[in-house]
Design goal:
Helix content: over 70%
CATH topology of one domain: Four Helix Bundle (Hemerythrin (Met), subunit A)
Number of strands: 0
Shape: rod-shaped
Order of helices and strands: HHHHHH
Largest sheet: none
Radius of gyration: 40 Å
Number of helices: 6
Length: about 180
């Protein structure tokens, strides 16, 4: 009978060996679980961060675009009047037709005294206003019937055109586009 019964010391050894192997394998599995958790954070965190950044950029672009669309009628009128002022000053400086000169003189003073003053930059030293004032002073000096063309108005006419160009181009550097304008 002793032969038919298994040796309890060898059976324990096998059981102990199996327990040791199981503990060893459980220890190995525990380490990847920590790695899996960090991978899970990366899988969740990276797309979430990308989504937040995308939403923020979209929101900033929306605000920039909507503020531009609100100002669009004003900017269109400002562009139109600046171009008219530049055109009238150029005609006054270059035309040889007395009728055209008299008409352009009247148009210049109408723009100077009214509409252009409404759309000039507020709260700043307006280069357009400064150029228009300088042109108006030169225009007064040449009188009502000067010898045409009035070449003494040419530099002042160019000053008005350049001030208008600078004013209009500054509007394109608003919003997000302004961030990249200096680069």
């Amino acid at each position: 009978m002793a032969e038919s019964q298994p040796d309890s010391s060898s059976e324990m050894t096998s059981t102990e060996k199996l327990d040791a192997i199981l503990k060893h394998l459980e220890g190995r599995e525990a380490a990847p679980k920590a790695d899996e958790r960090s991978l899970e954070w990366i899988r969740i965190g990276v797309p979430s961060a990308i989504a937040v950044v995308t939403i923020a950029i979209g929101f900033i672009q929306y605000i920039s675009t909507s503020s531009f669309s609100i100002r669009q009628p004003f900017l269109s009128k400002q562009t139109e009047l600046c171009l008219q002022a530049s055109e009238q000053t150029a005609r006054l400086a270059s035309t040889v037709d007395k009728e055209q000169w008299a008409k352009s003189r009247g148009e210049f003073w109408m723009l100077y005294l009214g509409p252009l003053a409404v759309v000039e930059e507020a709260g700043t030293e307006s280069r357009v206003a400064t150029a228009m004032v300088a042109f108006g002073k030169e225009l007064d000096k040449v009188g009502l019937s000067p010898e045409l063309p009035t070449s003494q108005l040419q530099s002042q006419s160019l000053a008005v055109a350049h001030a208008c160009r600078d004013l209009l181009s500054s509007k394109w550097q608003a919003g997000i586009m302004g961030w990249f304008a200096g680069r």
